[in-house]
Amino acid sequence: MRIRTLQQHDLAGVAELATLVHGTGYTEPQQLASWLVQGTKAGQCACLLAEVEKQIVAYRISFAPGQWQTDLWCSVALWPVPLEKMAYFKSVAVHPDWQGQGIGQRLLQNSIQALKQQGATAGLAHLWRESPNNSAVRYFSKAGGRLLQIHPNRWQHLSADGYLCPRCGAVCCCSAAEMVLEF
Hints:
The protein is 27% helix and 28% strand. It contains five helices and nine strands; from the N terminus they run βααβββββαβαβαβ. Helix 1 crosses helix 2 (29-38).
């Protein structure tokens, strides 16, 4: 397995994996292109993928500090660092055939190294609490993530734009665990 920086030519494959894991309408290559820009700062890219024989088996999208916007699901008053030092862990997916092998953790650790070089001292994530076996929260907790807040119906607004949640269908009622990881 090889871990490398995400490139423009990878976006269609990453979008396909995101759809498989997160549901139809989660993201498209055009949106991924802007996410890739948000993850790049000071010559470092914190957006990574894992591939086996040139097949994408996992990806990690992380935004550089100062290159993402807070929203109503950000509990800024609870953060241990100021916004200008806070990175954002936007998305991760591991192909179902490759889950449980530590790939997500490897991508996270490699992303943290890039984020540190970009000036981050912590990273925020909104994790899917209803993921199978609560794997998203377990994965982030294992890395040292700390729960800040629970946000009910976190992705419901995306349903109006055609998002089909793999758990709920046309109207997503899933909640997010807002978690922070200091590094």
